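Tokens for chain A. Residues wanted.
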């Protein structure tokens, strides 16, 4: 029987061997896994195959993972800001100085409270060397074919025309509506 591994950001893997500290996956993409080990601030990377081999060789298991049902746009944006800042090798103060904002604002955003992040998205993106869309969605823009219903197409077109701050507000509004629908069903 072949077992498939599903690696995702925010999964924590623990090995049966005591010499290895649990690993927290930071990001998975482009054939690479970025992770940190418990008790260490350094972010390490390896190929997906190397990480899968580590899982198999150490009889590792997922001890915690992301809760897909608990999507929170502000928190996701904060995670992306923190991850991109760390990838750039910057402290919160260095990012704040480069963007012309306070360090406390960066800390505020990284903990999921969006505050006035919308008006600073362009500056943050420039300092971090990414497009603003990467901060908002975690994805770089790529032209893809998708089959959408007419109403979905209209919604996507309208969403893309929004200011970044309004996009965050729209995401939060949709999140509340989905949560209310889930609560009404449960």
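Reply:
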């Amino acid at each position: 029987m072949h077992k498939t591994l599903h690696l995702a950001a925010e999964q924590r893997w623990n090995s049966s061997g005591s010499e290895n500290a649990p690993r927290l996956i930071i990001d998975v993409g482009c054939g690479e896994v970025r992770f940190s080990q418990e008790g260490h601030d350094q972010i390490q990377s390896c190929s997906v195959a190397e990480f899968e081999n580590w899982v198999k060789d150490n009889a590792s298991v997922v001890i915690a993972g992301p809760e897909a049902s608990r999507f929170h746009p502000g928190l996701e944006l904060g995670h992306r800001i923190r991850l991109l800042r760390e990838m750039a090798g910057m402290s919160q103060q260095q990012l704040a100085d480069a963007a012309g904002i306070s360090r406390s604002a960066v800390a505020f955003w990284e903990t999921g409270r969006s505050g006035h992040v919308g008006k600073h998205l362009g500056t943050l993106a420039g300092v971090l060397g990414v497009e603003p869309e990467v901060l908002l969605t975690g994805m770089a823009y790529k032209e893809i074919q998708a089959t959408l219903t007419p109403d979905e197409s209209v919604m996507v077109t309208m969403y893309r025309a929004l200011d970044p701050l309004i996009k965050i507000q729209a995401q939060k509004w949709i999140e509340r509506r989905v949560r209310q629908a889930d609560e009404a069903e449960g």
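Confidence is low (pLDDT under 50) at residues 68-72. The helical segments are 48-57, 73-87, 92-99, 103-110, 121-128, 132-137, 150-161, 164-185.
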